[in-house]
Fold this sequence. Notes:
38% of the residues lie in helices and 24% in strands. By secondary structure, the chain is an alpha/beta fold. It has a six-stranded mixed sheet with strand order 1-2-3-4-8-10, with helices on both faces. A hairpin with a 3-residue loop joins strand 3 (70-79) and strand 4 (83-90). Helix 1 (10-21) packs across helix 2, helix 6 packs across helix 8 (279-289) and helix 7 (266-273) crosses helix 8. The longest helix has 27 residues, at 26-52. The two termini are 34 Å apart. The structure holds zinc ion. The site of zinc ion has 8 residues, from loops.
Amino acid sequence: MLVKTRCEPAELKLLRYLNRRKILSEKEMNYYLNMEKGFLGEKKFDEWIQTNLSKGWLVLHDLLLEYNHTVFQIDTLIISPELIYLFEVKNYEGDFYIDGERWYAISNAEIKNPIHQLSRNEPLFRRLLQDLGYKTLTEAKIIFINPAFYLYQVPLKTPIIFSSQLNRFANKLNMKTFEIKDRQLKLAEKLVALHLKESPYIRLPDYSYNQLVKGIPCAACHSFMAALTLETLICESCGCKEAAYLAVMRSVEEYKFLFPNCKVTTNSIQEWCEIIQSKKTIQRVLSKNFKKIGYGKYTYYVEK
Length: 304
Ligand SMILES: [Zn+2]
């Protein structure tokens, strides 16, 4: 039973927005692409769970928890009365090897040993669990979801599940018969309530309004759109058309997300959208979807 779904991380959303409107530094770009890839892997694993795991298990995706002033993240947690699994999902691709405690790409570039993260998180989770009054056994695994990942020199007991082992792992999990009781449901609820909405680790790239290209990126391919008529926009790259009011709504959402401290006004949104000629179109969208504050040239809009 799915208890908590995965949300798109705010940091990823921010990087997606910025990537369309400014040139990211090489470091920022790598960080962004890794994050996209990681998120894609997590979603793939979510789908896998949805399709392959028997419905008895309680499933919680993407938990950000705190124990003893230490914040830790669990990609996916599955709960049964006897056993709780913590999964860390990696979407690595290519050949890697282990040498002692260290992990390397085949190019010999060292990467972070993901086991360290796991062995830091599991005890924190176990202690949190104890504080909540549960003594359920826990097991932590790294899921390498990408079939194009290969790891050399893996010691036998390493807590890893490769994509080629997932089906057998599902069989093992589905063989267990159990009944979820109120007690487990309560635990799942408590964990959802403890989930922190914002990660303290977000590393924001610097950006300012003036640095960003104005305009409306196409919802499908992210190229900037052009006005076809007063009411319709067109993307010249992919041919996609969109009603102007919908595109303005998307732009307002983006503007508010990127500049939470700036006022939403007809002028600020028109400048941000750049290609909407008619102030009336913008005014209509704003007054329909937001609450109007003030009068005349001092008018601005806030959430209803
Ligand atoms: Zn397009």
